[in-house]
Design a protein that fits this description.
273 residues; single chain; alpha+beta
Length: 273
């Protein structure tokens, strides 16, 4: 349903990287089982997500026959080089964050980032701004937070970071869920120099860096990179609003007292979001 669906980005993989993904899933699954069993009895089992049985038809559902507003493009890229990158903060792993930093700092022509929750630390924000200043064309589509966020704290935190980006020359687009008619933006991918793609579950925010166990696939292929850019240009930019310098300034330096109080409260939890 439009009220619950998300704009996400999946991919289908074949080849040796599938074994790496299966092993990563199994390791994460076993670790989280151990964490669940180690919880105090009072809270054990409180946050479990029920999994439908295999014969219920839910797990077998596909996009075929569904009225999806996002047309699917057939892509067969058998020569692509793919590598799994993992991030497990509990084990002091920040490999995905390092990959993003390296690719941003190494980009020479273009950077395209689509991410649902962009709450960067100082180093990441500086790297993106520096890329734009050295002549790299940087385009970002950022989620505008949850529509059901009663106090709108999440959008306040997200929008706070727009101004330095725009001042550096970054084109910042804000996803418009109501315009999209398909709920929130939940995709997390990036394309560098029209060749290297990053697709996975990693958000560019403190939770991605310090809390969540995440996986991405790094793909070296112009064909895949161009397909991602083409798809986003056709379907996502039209559902997003280009943020102006005036808008970004008002987000970072609001004039209304209520907005100032909201921003002050949001900034206290920014690094833990």
């Amino acid at each position: 349903a439009p009220g619950t669906a998300l704009r996400d980005q999946d991919l289908l993989l074949t080849g040796p990287v599938v074994s790496d993904l299966a092993r990563a899933f199994e390791e994460n699954f076993q670790e989280f089982i151990w964490l669940e069993k180690s919880r105090p009895v009072a809270i054990k089992g409180r946050r479990k997500t029920p999994i439908p049985p295999a014969d219920s038809g839910v797990l077998r559902e596909t996009g075929a026959g569904l009225n999806l507003p996002f047309p699917m493009e057939d892509l067969d890229d058998r020569d692509a080089t793919a590598r799994l990158i993992r991030s497990r903060p509990r084990k002091d792993e920040t490999y995905i964050y390092q990959v993003y930093l390296y690719l941003i700092k190494s980009a020479r022509k273009s950077i395209f980032i689509e991410n649902s929750y962009f709450v960067p630390d100082r180093e990441l924000n500086r790297a993106i701004c520096d890329a734009a200043r050295r002549g790299v064309k940087v385009v970002m589509i950022i989620g505008c937070g949850k529509d059901k966020d009663r106090y709108q704290m999440q959008p306040t935190i997200l929008r706070y970071h727009y101004l330095p980006l725009i001042q550096a020359g970054v084109e910042v687009y804000q996803w418009q869920s109501k315009l999209a008619g398909f709920g929130e933006l939940h995709s997390k991918f990036a394309v560098f120099d029209d060749r290297v793609s990053v697709i996975g579950s990693y958000n560019l925010d403190p939770r991605g860096k310090f809390l969540n166990s995440e996986n991405i696939v790094l793909i070296d292929s112009e064909k895949t990179a161009q397909a991602l850019i083409r798809y986003a240009a056709l379907n996502d930019l039209s559902r997003s609003e280009l943020v102006s310098l005036a808008q970004a300034t008002s987000y970072r330096y609001p004039k209304k007292i209520t907005a100032l109080v909201k921003l002050a409260c949001a900034l206290t939890v920014k690094d833990f979001w």
